[in-house]
Amino acid sequence: MNLDFTQIVPYIPFMLEGIWVTLGFVSVSIIFGFILGTLIALIKISRIKFMVGLADAYTSVFRGTPLILQLMIIYFAIPQLTGYNIPPFFAAVLAFGLNSSAYISEIIRAGIQAVEKGQTEAAQALGVPYRPMMKDLILPQALKNILPALMNEFITLTKESAIVSTISYLDLMRRAQVVGSDIYRNFEPLLFVGLIYYLLVMGLTMLGKLLERRLRVSD
Fold first, then answer.
1. In-domain check, residue 202
2. Phi, psi (5° rounding) for residue 126?
3. CATH number of the domain where residue 108 is located
4. Which of 8, 41, 42, 94 is close enough to 109 for a disulfide, judged by CB 3.0 to 4.6 Å?
């Protein structure tokens, strides 16, 4: 069968809208995941064994099960138990945010532990309270070191975002499926959307490398 990309031309604006839909929910998810992941990381380095155990269990569950399973549980299973339907956008943000927070917590924990212990000891010797010490001294240095890793997490979420098409959320992948069912040809719209995903990931990768170079120069 010959390829015929002329059939998808009228649908190109519809598919391109999926870029902002995809980046929109991925950006919200990474912000949610970053905030929650930071809290979990702080719990992991605390001395409260019970809380540390809960944080480790949380990380283990969300890193040890497939993201698509987590999405399905949130979108299909939880409404079965509660009787309330969850909108696709909220389900996608919740699943991706919770999953991402597990990975981000490990990234931030490693970044905090990479900061020289001497700085923490000096701050404690000067009587600086724990919260200001973390907020003004430790976390800024840790974040500077882990920004490339956080960028990689953003790229990973962008690639994995295609699975939200399984809950009929109109992201890039779902729009390609809609076009394919409309014109009875799937290869052309999927190839077109695949190219968009590739360009998005390459653009974010280049941005990440640029950020990493600037961090090296500032050091």
1. yes
2. -85, 0
3. 1.10.3720.10
4. 41
Residue among 100, 196, 194, 95 at smallest CA distance from 156: 100
Tell me what pLDDT residue 1 has. Answer: 59
Confidence band, pLDDT 50/70/90 cuts, at residue 140:
confident
| Residue 143 covered by a domain | yes
pTM summary value: 0.88
Residue 2 domain-assigned (yes or no): no
pLDDT above 90 (res 148): no
Buried b (16+ CB within 10 A) or exposed e, 62-89: beeeebeebbbebbeebeeeeeeebebb
* 92: in domain: yes
Q: What are phi and psi of 76, to 5 degrees?
A: -105, -45
What are the tokens at 104?
Answer: 């981000």
Is the CB of residue 1 less than 8 Å from the CB of residue 188?
no
